[in-house]
Amino acid sequence: MKVSLNIMSVVLCIALFSCSHPTKKMSLQSGDLLFQGASSGKLSEAIDKVTQTHAETHFSHVGLVEQAEDGSLWVLHADIEGGCCRVSLNDFLEPDGDSLQTVCYRLKEPWLSAIEPALDKARSMLGLPYNFSYKLSDSSHYCSEFIYKAFQDAAVFKLKPMTFKDPQTGEFFPTWVDYYGRLGIPVPEGEPGCNPNGMAASDKLECLGEYD
């Protein structure tokens, strides 16, 4: 789930301002969550508009860091092209050769024990397709659903009713009406779900800052 490149300089500044101790460089470790907010497309913009929180972040994608025994860094995530997959850190940061601004969050101390079971669960979901309906499923996952399921046993993240309506008008965004019309299913208004902005606002995470 991603947002438009032409607004990223502004929105990433907002995201970084909300971090208590942002740093330009950091050492990533297993269990870190990498949030991204850079991509073009009306759907990504519509996602961002209906998933805002008090933290005022503008994230549209999230992945889970895994550090291999040899020290190499990988990211487990679900995306439109690859479904639920494991990619190198560099490929996650620069898909198709485009550099994406990325902000790193880390679980706070009481929740660190959830990391290894979450990685095991994430590995078990690799190979599943992307969930284009955004309705919770056991056979396909969207990006934040993948992370939610990984940490589900530890109850790190919570589901909330989804909305696809413009908060100013109370009407469905036309983008969503068109999207679900093409899928041939009703807009899943009010059904349980999750999103990167909501996860980033969790009090169980601390923001480490932008990862260069």
TrEMBL record:
Coiled-coil ranges per UniProt: none
InterPro entries cross-referenced by the UniProt entry: Papain-like_cys_pep_sf, Peptidase_C92
Pfam families: Peptidase_C92 (PF05708)
Top-level taxonomic group: Bacteria
Name of the protein this chain belongs to: Permuted papain-like amidase YaeF/Yiix C92 family enzyme
Organism for this UniProt entry: Mangrovibacterium marinum
